[in-house]
Amino acid sequence: MDLNLSVFQEPRGVMRIFHFVFAIVAFATTVDFSKSIMVNCDGTENEFIIDYPFDVTEEKIFANCTVTLYGNFSSDAKFYVCTGVLSMLYAAAILVIYTKFDQMYRDNENLPLIDFILSVILSIFWLSSSAAWANGLSGLKSAVGNLNIMEGCHCTSSGIGFSSLNISIVVGFLNFFLWASNLWFLYKETKWFQKPVPSSPAI
């Protein structure tokens, strides 16, 4: 079975490369995020670690003070990362089929149909998970910016940047656009589009 690279001259093949690359970018920018907030209360310093999966509910006890950070945004983050990983694996698997089993893909009318349906599902996943994670990130920023400090304590905290997580949101919606825009090219490969031409009646 020789490799058939002609698929990369077609939109469906080129788009799968984009799907694979941007899926990795999406979940990598999320899971690789790790920053700390340094909190100083009456000369005693401690830190809150903010990292994936972003269950940031934590309490720090200082000499005479208690500082609490509230918020669990792990479900939104995990949904988003799961969508990215599934998309990466599927894009890699379908590229193997395109290049190694292209003739079987074209001859079997069910394979293009399955490819189209799974791509629709993953497109919906990207839209919903990106929206959920955008909402979760908004809540995370609010939680980090509003530490619960025990009354009477004199505390200061350092700020952190969320630029990489902001990028992950943008890339998530970009992934939705890429997957959705490929649906037309996949639909053209299905039996729904390629209806057989009725034969002319014999005279």
Provide structural commentary.
It is a single chain. The protein starts with 10 loop residues before the first helix and ends in a 16-residue tail after the last helix. Strand 1 and strand 2 (44-51) form a beta hairpin. By secondary structure, the protein is of the alpha+beta class. It contains six helices and six strands. It has one domain (5-185): Butyryl-CoA Dehydrogenase, subunit A, domain 3 (Up-down Bundle), CATH 1.20.140.
Task: Present the secondary structure layout.
Layout (H helix, E strand, L loop, with lengths): L10 H21 L2 E8 L2 E8 L6 E4 L4 E4 L4 H27 L1 H6 L2 H36 L2 E2 L5 E3 L5 H19 L1 H5 L16
Antiparallel strand pairs: 1-2, 1-6, 3-4, 4-5
Helix pairs in contact: 1-2, 1-5, 2-4, 4-5
Looking at this protein, list some descriptive labels.
3-stranded antiparallel β-sheet; 14% strand; 203 residues; Butyryl-CoA Dehydrogenase, subunit A, domain 3; alpha+beta
Main sheet overview: 3 strands, antiparallel
Helix content bin: 55-70%
What fraction of residues sit in β-strands? 5-15%
Overall strand count = 6
CATH architecture: Up-down Bundle
Order of helices and strands: HEEEEHHHEEHH
Mean pLDDT: 86
Helix and strand content put the structural class at alpha+beta
Q: What's the CATH class label?
A: Mainly Alpha
User: Gap between N and C termini, in Å?
Assistant: 45 Å
Pick out the low-confidence regions. Answer: none
Backbone CA Rg: 24 Å
Number of helices: 6
Shape: elongated
- Per CATH, what is the topology? Butyryl-CoA Dehydrogenase, subunit A, domain 3
Structurally, how many domains make up the residues? 1
Strand order of the largest sheet: 2-1-6
